Amino acid sequence: MAGLVKPDPARHPCRRGEGNIEFPDQGVCLLRRLSPARLLALLLTGLIPVAAGRAQSAPDPPGIQDNSFLIEEAYNQEYGVVQHISTFTRFWNSKDWIYTFTQEWPVPGAPRHQLSYTLARLHAGALQGSGAGWGDALLNYRYQLVGSGDARVAFSPRLSLILPAGDSSAGRGFGGAGFQASLPLSVVVTKQLVTHWNAGTTVVPHAQNFAHQRATTVGYNLGQSFIWRAHSRFNVMLETVFGSFQQVVAPNRTEWSRSLLLSPGVRWAYNFKNGLQIVPGIAVPLGVGPSAGEKGVLLYLSFEHPFRKLLVPRRQGRQMQRAASLALDRLPFRFKPHEHRLGLQAYPEDLFHSLLNLVFQFDNLRRRGAAAVHQR
Fold first, then answer.
1. At 330, phi and psi to the nearest 5?
2. DSSP one-letter code for 18
3. What is the dihedral sign for C-alpha 162, 166, 168, 173?
4. pTM for the whole structure
5. pLDDT (tens digit, 9 = 90+) per residue, 145-194?
6. Which residue ranges form the domains of the chain, and what is each CATH number?
7. Integer distance in angstroms from the first to the last C-alpha of the chain?
């Protein structure tokens, strides 16, 4: 019939390699044969409205949340995201300095659980000639009991095992194994103001001093901070830390020592398209009360990034899984996950988004094919 142009099989959208896009032949051809009524059925399942909503409302760039210096926030790591934290603190009067490295991992499949460890390298200024070396190590477990990073109130108790890796004779450790418990509470007061509260205790049943004398020591710490969100990527901080700990002075004898620090500081963030967030920071700890006259500087650096491909935020994971299950049950054809090559296969939300991509990419190919026919 005049006016019609025979389609070129080489440009047919069911073939692979159209432009820079590759599709499985079966999935694209099935979508190609969908009638308008079946495409309407896809609309009614909620597949396309969800994707349209995601495209129209682009997520805000990530702000700064779990990057305090001396205070512990009550926010566990997000699913699929790991954080590497380095701090360096130098005090001028005592000549003490300490570097710590902490790595925090979410437990796979259990977002309320978090595991982490802390390593330390330090120098005790009170012991001249002791030099620098490794301190005690901590293995930490934390449970998100209340809230999350998206809630107004969050509470996540932590329990830590103290491993005596440091040399107590050089002032770099307790000299024995122990445990530590902490109760961090985070409260969002306003959109610009967040506060964190800490209470904790440390117990070492067989602590040892530099003279190799042993006794059981206990201690407790209290902390509080205000975070002013001047910008989503720039915060002003004021942290207050109080500690009271026993020290071994003779066999089975201890004495209490106390410290109180007021630490103003700032932190800022750099966000990258691959999900990496780098947060540097600096603070000036100042001694007050029992620590009057002490002063120091604290440097902070955090790297936080996904260690697996994430297509949806953690808070939307369950909703997306339910939507994916309902949508797949209503599809006008059966899709076998092991046959398609888009995204990860093990998670329902990945299959869900793969189907969305097929729908919209098919529509794009259809438009380009129609434009090519019209040009001929």
1. -100, 0
2. B
3. negative
4. 0.68
5. 999 888 999 999 999 999 999 998 888 999 999 999 999 999 999 999 99
6. 9-58+313-375 (no CATH), 81-306 (2.40.160.40)
7. 15
